[in-house]
Amino acid sequence: MQETPPHTPDEARQEPGTAVTLARLFAYPVKSCAGVELDAVELTEAGLDLDRAWMAVDQRGDFVSQRQLPRMALIRCQIRSEELVLRAPGMLALHLAINAVEKPVRVQVWDDSVPAFDMGNVAAQWFSDFLGHRLRLVRFDPEHRRLSQFRWTAGLEAPNQFSDGYPLLVVSQASLDSLNMRLTARGHAAVGLERFRPNLVLSGVQAHEEDFIRDVRLSGADGPVTLRLVKPCARCPIPDIDPSTAERSTAVGDTLATYRADPRLDGALTFGMNAIVLEGDGVRLQKGLPGSATWRFD
Questions:
Q1: What CATH number has the domain bearing residue 108?
Q2: Which H/E stretch holds residue 181?
Q3: Looking at residue 62, what is its pLDDT?
Q4: What distance in Å separates the CA atoms of residue 45 and residue 96, rounded to the nearest whole number?
Q5: Is pLDDT at 31 greater than 50 in this prediction?
Q6: DSSP state, 88?
């Protein structure tokens, strides 16, 4: 029997604010490649610095992802002071200067046609050789304002780069713990948070309580941060791709289907919440920052 999805807040959690901690931080410099766990990073209005700043595209300029090319999960990123270093099995490291680009191009990410910069033939050949398709690597044009859907931001302008549509993805550690308990009960191995590609991981809330958070306020060393959680994150098959092998299974999706069908998105399976930045552009986030969550009851 399918369990009732947890879309009613626990009555015991209806206090005006709850203490939370920023437990982990992740950025994904190249869209759909492996993420980088960070101790600290600058927050911008478009999300974490360098998050989804680069993207691989096909010969038509359409973005590609692990959905079509699961081996993208094996491309590891390292951020240095002046360069991004990419590594993949059987490949020499690709070094990209963070502030160097080549010719301007136009590319497609979902329904948005956006200006970008091609990263040159060496980067294109590296991605093409490893992934077995003719690809180019592009850098987002920071002068362009690609906005999240007003339907979910209540009319607030929320710019983002090559993310699927929102500046940040917030999940709780408790949500992963709950999923892993269900996975192991069904005879599957536990999985890591990297499958869900969050930017911010919260501790201090119960499983899937991020569904009911309105704002998260963090006390940065150089200023306050306010994030608004605006839209549940519908899950595609990427969480079923093992990030260490790029092999597919159905265990995660099948398990989420038993309890995470979300009526807010017509029954899509959701895990985590997309968020926008209300306050804190330029503030440095660090793991362990204290904060508070305020609740929504709509």
A1: 2.40.33.20
A2: helix 173-185
A3: 98
A4: 24
A5: yes
A6: -
The reported pLDDT for the residue numbered 220 is: 82
Q: How many CA atoms lie within 13 Å of 272's alpha carbon, on the beta-carbon side?
A: 25
The CA dihedral of 157, 158, 162, 168, to the nearest 10 degrees, is -170
Encoding tokens for residue 136? 């180019």
Q: Where are the alpha helices (DSSP H) in 155-210?
A: 173-185
Task: Look up the pTM and report it.
Answer: 0.93
pLDDT digits (tens, 9 = 90+) for 232-278: 999 999 999 999 999 999 999 999 999 999 999 999 999 999 999 99
Whether the pLDDT of residue 12 is over 50: the answer is no
Structural domain count of the chain = 1
| 3-state helix, strand and coil shares in percent for the chain, rounded to the nearest 5 | 20, 40, 40
pLDDT, one tens digit per residue, over 102-116 is 999 999 999 999 999
Rounded CA-CA distance 97/18 in Å is 42
237, 257 Cβ separation under 8 angstroms: no
Helix (H, G, I), strand (E, B) or coil at 231: strand
Interacting residues of 296 by C-beta distance below 8 A, sequence separation 6+:
212, 213, 214
- Mean pLDDT calculated for residue range 122-126: 98
Quick check: 234 and 164 in contact, CB under 8 A?
no
Which bin fits 154, alpha (ψ -120 to 50), beta or left (φ > 0)?
A: left
Closest CA to 198 of 244, 229, 153, 219: 229
User: Which residues span the domain enclosing 213?
Assistant: 11-295
Contact 285, 225 (CB under 8 A): yes
Could you tell me if residue 2 is inside a domain? no
Q: Are 61 and 105 in contact (CB under 8 A)?
A: yes
Q: How far apart are CA 246 and CA 195, in angstroms?
A: 11
Residue 6 lies in a domain: no
Q: Which residue has the tokens 């999940």?
A: 171
